[in-house]
């Protein structure tokens, strides 16, 4: 797998990511409990694991939105806060401005000092060209999520986090989102995608990080993980047995 944007004149490479002994205590409990992992190369990493395993909190820590209680996160040697602007995050529930579809994109392009003429192309890319002037609040769930994706892409991130972006969407909308993400990945963007959907994970993952009780239980290439997970909890999870 190759690295992206490692030129001698540009900023230091984002990857490898090194996470060591990460602990996050909330409400008196260690919700992340000594988590360590590395990410490198290109492609799509899917983070899976049962409810409450710590997936969403891990994304927020990696993106620099919250700070750990202890432990160490370094993106190419830099702390998360130093690289947040080089990354984008898409949440399960899209957070959109109460303005038109076009204005939602325009706002991001303007804030980033980017060419605002790109907006039309981005809306076309996510299949929303015909909704340009519509208020964003009138979009369906699938359309709103595609607009959230377009906004993330408008920042031209090197890496995109997606936290269960298709959890409440119909099958056609799920596939539409997956196609856009796969295209971004094929264009060289690093993807970190949280999902509960085993079939979705099988479609999109190059590698899987399986979390359980705030720790990494297994980290493997998708081609190894799905046919033969090493850990008993991952095996149970893939087989639909309850894992607590
Ligand atoms: N602000 C908070 N205060 C106390 N506990 C919290 C807080 N936020 C999250 N937690 C707890 O931390 C644990 C991990 O939460 P997280 O949202 O990361 O889980 P998850 O793996 O994304 O779960 P799910 O699959 O259900 O979305 C959960 O037990 C949750 O209840």
TrEMBL record:
<dbReference type="InterPro" id="IPR017871">
    <property type="entry name" value="ABC_transporter-like_CS"/>
</dbReference>
<keyword id="KW-0067">ATP-binding</keyword>
<keyword id="KW-0547">Nucleotide-binding</keyword>
<dbReference type="Pfam" id="PF00005">
    <property type="entry name" value="ABC_tran"/>
</dbReference>
<dbReference type="InterPro" id="IPR003593">
    <property type="entry name" value="AAA+_ATPase"/>
</dbReference>
<dbReference type="InterPro" id="IPR027417">
    <property type="entry name" value="P-loop_NTPase"/>
</dbReference>
<dbReference type="GO" id="GO:0005524">
    <property type="term" value="F:ATP binding"/>
</dbReference>
<protein>
    <submittedName>
        <fullName>ABC transporter ATP-binding protein</fullName>
    </submittedName>
</protein>
<dbReference type="InterPro" id="IPR003439">
    <property type="entry name" value="ABC_transporter-like_ATP-bd"/>
</dbReference>
<feature type="domain" description="ABC transporter">
    <location>
        <begin position="17"/>
        <end position="238"/>
    </location>
</feature>
<keyword id="KW-0813">Transport</keyword>
<dbReference type="GO" id="GO:0016887">
    <property type="term" value="F:ATP hydrolysis activity"/>
</dbReference>
């Amino acid at each position: 797998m190759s690295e992206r944007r490692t030129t001698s004149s540009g900023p230091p490479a984002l990857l490898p990511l090194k996470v060591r002994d990460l602990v996050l205590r909330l409400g008196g409990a260690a919700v992340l409990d000594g988590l360590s992992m590395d990410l490198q190369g290109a492609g799509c990493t899917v983070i899976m694991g049962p409810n409450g395993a710590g997936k969403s909190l891990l994304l927020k820590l990696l993106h620099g939105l919250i700070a750990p209680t202890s432990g160490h996160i370094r993106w190419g040697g830099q702390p998360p806060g130093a690289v947040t602007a080089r990354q984008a995050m898409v949440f399960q529930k899209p957070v959109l401005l109460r303005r038109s579809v076009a204005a939602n994109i325009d706002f991001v392009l303007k804030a980033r000092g980017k060419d605002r003429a790109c907006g039309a192309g981005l809306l076309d890319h996510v299949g929303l060209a015909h909704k340009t002037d519509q208020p964003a609040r009138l979009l369906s769930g699938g359309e709103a999520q595609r607009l959230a994706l377009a906004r993330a892409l408008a920042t031209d991130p090197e890496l995109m986090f997606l936290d269960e972006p298709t959890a409440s969407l119909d099958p056609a909308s799920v596939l539409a989102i997956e196609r856009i993400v796969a295209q971004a990945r094929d264009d060289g963007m690093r993807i970190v995608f949280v999902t509960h959907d085993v079939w979705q994970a099988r479609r999109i993952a190059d590698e899987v990080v399986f979390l359980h009780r705030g720790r990494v239980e297994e980290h493997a290439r998708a081609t190894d993980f799905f046919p033969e997970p090493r850990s008993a909890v991952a095996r149970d999870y893939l087989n639909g047995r309850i894992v607590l």
